[in-house]
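Quick one: structure for this chain?
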Amino acid sequence: MHWQSSQRLELVHYDIRGPIYLKALEMEAAGHEIIPLNIGNPAAFGLEVPVELREELAKAITRSGGYTHQLGNKNAREAIVQYANQMGIWDADLNHVVIGNGVSELILMSMQALLNPGDEVLVPAPDYPLWTAAINLAGGVAVHYPCIEENGWQPDLDQIRKKINTRTKALVVINPNNPTGAVYSLDCLNQLVAIAEEFKLVLCSDEIYDHVLFDERKHVSCASLGTQTLFLTYGGISKNHFAAGYRAGWLIMSGLKKEASDFMDGLQLLASMRLCSNALAQAAIPVALQNFEQIRNAVRPGGRLFEQKNMVVERLNSMQGLSCAVPGGAMYVFPSVDKKVFRFINDQDFVLQLLVKKNVLLVPGKGFNHHDDHHFRLVFLAPISQLDEALDRIQELLHENLV
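Got it. Here's what it folds into:
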């Protein structure tokens, strides 16, 4: 008997930890030292969780041994409601906040609760691939709308409108964006909200990087700009507080909540089936939402993330055949490789050669459901010295593959 995986997985991929990543693990097991610039995991590069959160966890251990409410403990949800109010989401309330084991779990749960087979969801291209995977896994259809590299990776609003039909159920916005680092303009956000309200699309706004902002950019929550559709706002402590391993995220439902009571019942059911999210991590949420100084220091001029971002962008743009837009937020750059200049077949060929020949791990652009085959994502969380070494190796590989 040969046991095969479910057919539901045929359209599901997650290349951030896909085949090239697995090859890197094999190489590490064989003794190679890999520079891992494939995943936004701050702790792996020495970026520590703020001391206030660690102290709160230590105090919470003795009272966190049992299940919490299925939506999350009351103190944590009250803190999230207050945070939502600060963002201008005035109608947030305790009964429409769901805490999850990271935003990832909440994306999966909300797509399962929302979608019927064949329902379409508009997703940016490039995207964070979990969105496309979650939609497909829930029986929906991910329809990708382009973001324009020449315009700082802002969404193509005309293309969004053209892709809407009677099957379209939701619009996904990722801002600040993973993988491009784009921060959308206020005009763009207003137009995205207007489209969602006009066509009564659920607006799913992934705002996990809402404090990871550079060069005086400001974050505006989509749900603060409208009330005439259903808004789902996703956030957490994994990036703002370098606490990816804590697995503490939340979903805030706002807007036309009364018209979404069945959907909320579905979320309640799914939340109950997994019993609760991590109780210990939930205890850190109220403290986290009062402490943003560490990330603010990291992203301001002279801060670690700011300087690493600048160095990476400058070096990439100095390399023949590469072009890199300046990220306004998040922890990534998404450069383009000029295929006329190099002998690489495509982005996967470039990334695989870089791993095998130079021991540097990146993710090909196709892994983010991008429409072309000559981009890659690089995470700039590593210290300057390590990034410098990785960029030297990238430059070596490019030189070796000149046409």
